[in-house]
């Protein structure tokens, strides 16, 4: 992408909240904030990919100091325009490598944002970056979907997830490389607009190994933010890795 904001430039930022309206519903946001506030305790929270502040703003309203990292100035500008937007500190940069001052009791990546890092190395770098920011006993939380490869019969690479007279949306998988993309075709006034956003899907066990490389260890894993058990039929997971309090070296 030539845009300095990556795939979340002005045109995407302008409609992001409306396009993702379901994720802004209190029934989605409140359990997420409850979970993160409990882990933060009296400490600070670091959100990677803070975006327009869907989680950062209500978490800050709970009294948790929140700092965010995001590449998109356009998305951050939307955050700033909201009530309380100036209360959330933001550093512009790639959250896989960008460092900020201080330490945090919790860092988090929600709504599949870990997959915005499109190489395994970048995802590994992200874990190491988080580990460097966490205080001993601090936690790293990721919410991410399970790749829907069970929906792919032999020879098929495409999984549709929305079909209507004015919008088609589908994921394309490359199982050899774990590359995927989400693709959208929107039709308005007889004209179509196509957008494709690349991702790299990642398995729970792979994330656990990345955590281990960064000196973190798995503390808990759930299907969702309210503690539903993670099972073979789960479509997503909320995982928490902890930085040990009594070990030295990287991540310790």
Strand percentage lies at 25-35%
> End-to-end span in angstroms?
36 Å
Mean of residue pLDDT?
Answer: 95
Principal-axes shape call: globular
Topology as a string of helices (H) and strands (E): HHEHEHEEHEEEEEHEE
Organism: Streptomyces yunnanensis
Protein name: Class I SAM-dependent methyltransferase
Keywords: Methyltransferase, S-adenosyl-L-methionine, Transferase
GO molecular function, one term: methyltransferase activity
Structural write-up:
GO terms for molecular function: methyltransferase activity. It is a single chain. This protein is α/β, with parallel strands linked by helices and 252 residues long. 25% of the residues lie in helices and 31% in strands. The protein has 6 helices and 11 strands. It has helices at residues 10-19, 26-40, 56-61, 73-80, 120-133, 204-213, and strands at residues 45-48, 66-70, 89-92, 104-109, 134-145, 158-163, 167-174, 179-188, 191-200, 217-222, 236-242. The protein is globular, with a radius of gyration of 18 Å. Residues 248-252 have low confidence and may be disordered.
């Amino acid at each position: 992408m030539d845009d300095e904001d990556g795939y979340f430039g002005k045109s995407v930022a302008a409609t992001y909240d409306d396009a993702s309206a379901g994720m802004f519903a209190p029934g989605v946001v409140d359990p997420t904030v409850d979970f993160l506030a409990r882990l933060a305790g009296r400490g600070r929270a670091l959100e990677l990919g803070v975006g327009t502040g869907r989680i950062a703003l209500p978490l800050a309203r709970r009294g948790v100091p929140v700092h965010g990292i995001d590449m998109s100035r356009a998305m951050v500008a939307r955050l700033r325009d909201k009530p309380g937007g100036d209360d959330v500190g933001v550093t512009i940069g790639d959250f896989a490598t960008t460092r900020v001052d201080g330490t945090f009791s919790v860092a988090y990546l929600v709504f599949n944002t870990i997959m915005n890092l499109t190489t395994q190395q970048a995802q590994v770098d992200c874990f190491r970056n988080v580990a460097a920011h966490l205080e001993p006993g601090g936690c790293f939380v990721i919410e991410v979907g399970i790749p829907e490869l069970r929906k792919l019969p032999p020879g098929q690479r495409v999984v549709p997830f929305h079909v209507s007279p004015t919008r088609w949306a589908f994921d394309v998988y490359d199982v050899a490389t774990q590359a995927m993309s989400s693709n959208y075709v929107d039709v308005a006034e007889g004209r179509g607009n196509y957008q494709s956003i690349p991702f790299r899907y990642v398995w729970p066990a792979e994330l656990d190994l990345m955590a281990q490389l960064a000196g973190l260890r798995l503390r808990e894993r759930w299907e969702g933010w309210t503690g539903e058990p993670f099972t073979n039929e789960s479509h997503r997971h909320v995982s928490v890795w902890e930085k040990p309090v009594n070990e030295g070296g990287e991540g310790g």
